[in-house]
Amino acid sequence: MTKSIDADMVRRVAILARLRVSEDEVQRYVGQLSRIFDYVDLLNEVNTDNVEPLTHALPVTNVLREDVVRPSLSSEQALANAPQADRGFFVVPKVLDQESS
Amino acid sequence: MGEVIDTAALVRSGSSSAADVMDACLKRINSRDKAVNALVSYDEDRARADAARIDKKRADGQTLGKLAGVPVVVKDNICTEFSRTTCGSKILESYVSQFNAFVVDQLIDADAVIVGKANLDEFAMGSSTEFSLHGGTLNPWDTQRVPGGSSGGPAVAVASRMVSASLGSDTGGSIRQPASFCGVVGLKPSYGRVSRYGLVAYGSSLDQIGPFATSVDDAALMLEVIAGHDDRDSTSVNEDVPVYTDALHQPIDGKRVGVCDACFAEGLSDDVRLSVESSIEKMRDAGCEIVPIALPHMKYAIASYYMIAMAEASSNLARFDGVHYGYRAAEPRDLADMYATSRGEGFGAEVKRRIMMGTYALSSGYYDAYYLKALKVRRLIKVDFDAAYQRCDVIALPVAPTTAFAVGEKVEDPLAMYLSDMYTVFANLAGLCAISLPCGFDGSGLPIGWQLMGQPLGESTLLSMAHHYQSMTDYHLQAPELATK
Hints:
Chain A is mainly α.
């Protein structure tokens, strides 16, 4: 019922997912994803009119607590696993390139 | 009794020292793990120091906890401050958590010693423990076969008797299926029974931590230690933890075991079907009533489950961005390139596939058709189980359609791998507790497991039924040859 998955669609999804994929991977995903989503189309046999989605199995909704200050990670701890850090900050490459800034 | 219970009692009373227990455990690990690759890291010096601290505690007159001196391993997606937590992924290869998971603190408070971390499919995504940065784990009953997954490492560590108990995580069967393939007991608690704080998230509405052990008694004790309310996990249930080791001995006379014919239909191997059916007969002999139940939406469970799990995975794994922790690609052009390249190089094939599918299912134009539809079908599956539990106390079914499959057999066919979870995903979708118990061997000598599924927070009843079954059988006492080396 849904549109089949082609290479353009796979490339578009990879951009949304922020995943660099090789052309080989694109071709592999076209086949694998198509097959899996064809199987998932089985769900269309089920009449779900007036059925509420179930996001998780517990009968709890909002869990509240007192808004009190508690110990949390220190700045050093928060940065301990950072690939690159400097003077208390995470370091990332420039966001915009020279021409567009 | 159980090995964990016995060891803890000996150490508590002073008949054994934690140091001696640890020495013996490290010897077993050193002689057995090379053959199966169950562990990804362990630190002998730290384990010995922890054991010595427990002996000192006792010498100082303190009463030791429920797991006094018991060596355990935990799956490598459970955070520990004292070692790396890699999730079997290149993207977390050098990650050291700044905090312990709730369950890790519970184990330490009970005076267990966490010897090391156990192997898994990358980010717990898989059914075979073949997809790991650390290489695959092998089944100790036949090293040409997979141990199941994704908690293959914790299952094999117990099956080959390196340790008496371990912790895994179960999102769609990742404790029960490897328990079945390896011939040990594996328990997935009800959703919310055990805090997920410090478990690296895969499918947050499905994930649950639970124990592996060689007996139901030991699994009950492990659950008793790790269960409980934790306000750092908003889905942690605020209910008292029963004394499961006492609940085991409840009478099971007149308890109703639900059986759904559709669970014994096509796709189930004969060896597995016969063993599970004969286990159900044993429950009848023990005084249980066997009642037929219907699960009308059963055939849609896998499709619903994988849509939900992949959608949740694609959201949860967005945090691996090369900024806060983990692998970062060398010399990125700009920020967007750094994200995409770090993730493209850091994640393995199966994880990328699931992120792609989850992102697709959540993307504009497909959200209603896939993700929302799956959640509605999930509701119908839950309603099926609510109705079934009006008629029975537990449900009996297989764990997996076959025994352990060959290494490499399903690597190129992801859908076939997913379909092998057909009997386990229900419990995660509906928040049920479920246990896998050894119930026989197939023609090649590979273990078979059967599954009992209980109501949410129905662990006491579930464990008592499991315990009675175990007292009538000796399958759980069989160990592979590797366990004698």
